[in-house]
Design goal:
172 residues, alpha+beta, tt1808, chain A, five-stranded antiparallel β-sheet, six-stranded mixed β-sheet
């Protein structure tokens, strides 16, 4: 889809089947809707939700985050510390955002978005590609493959194991 210019007021007052992002006055459609993509969002979200009390977090699906004055992003999963103030649109950096790749997603585009998240102050950016069967961590150097297959947050019990997600995907 060709990016569509819209005002911020139009963006904030509109609703979309799959929420769109807004960057520098342009509406950006998000990819999604495929089985693998949707299933992994649900599965990872359920794992985080089921451990929310122990991990001290809240998991949101498709929440808008204002990463800058002219930028609104909508990661697949957003994980907040339990004590984070509740906002209609998030303006404080969450603990972690998780993007699940769709077949249409280009990894370089996801890497650019990861850099934006990190610059905004999001501490951890995780990307899971169910098609390539790999996960990445966003770092100051770009996306780095998670070689041990574990998405973790140091000094916390938070841990998502890629092999477990993919095995569950293979079972359905």
């Amino acid at each position: 889809m060709t990016p569509q210019p819209v005002s911020l007021d139009e963006y904030l007052s509109a609703s979309f089947e799959y929420d769109c992002e807004w960057a520098d006055g342009v509406l950006i459609e998000r990819s999604g809707g495929e089985f693998d993509h949707s299933f992994l969002i649900a599965l990872a979200g359920a794992q985080i939700h089921n451990r929310r009390a122990v991990w001290g977090v809240i998991c949101l699906l498709g929440a808008r985050i204002q990463t800058g004055p002219t930028r609104f992003r909508v990661p697949d999963l957003t994980v907040l510390r339990a004590e984070t103030p509740r906002e209609r649109i998030l303006t404080h950096p969450p603990l972690v955002v998780i993007e699940i790749q769709s077949p249409e997603d280009v990894l370089s585009g996801t890497a650019a978005k990861a850099m934006e998240y990190l610059a905004f102050g999001i501490e951890h950016v995780w990307v899971v590609d169910p098609y390539a069967r790999v996960a990445y961590r966003g770092t100051a150097n770009g996306l780095e493959p998670v070689r041990d297959g574990e998405l973790t947050i140091p000094e916390t019990p938070i841990r998502i194991i890629l092999a477990e997600l993919l095995a569950e995907l293979d079972r359905v």
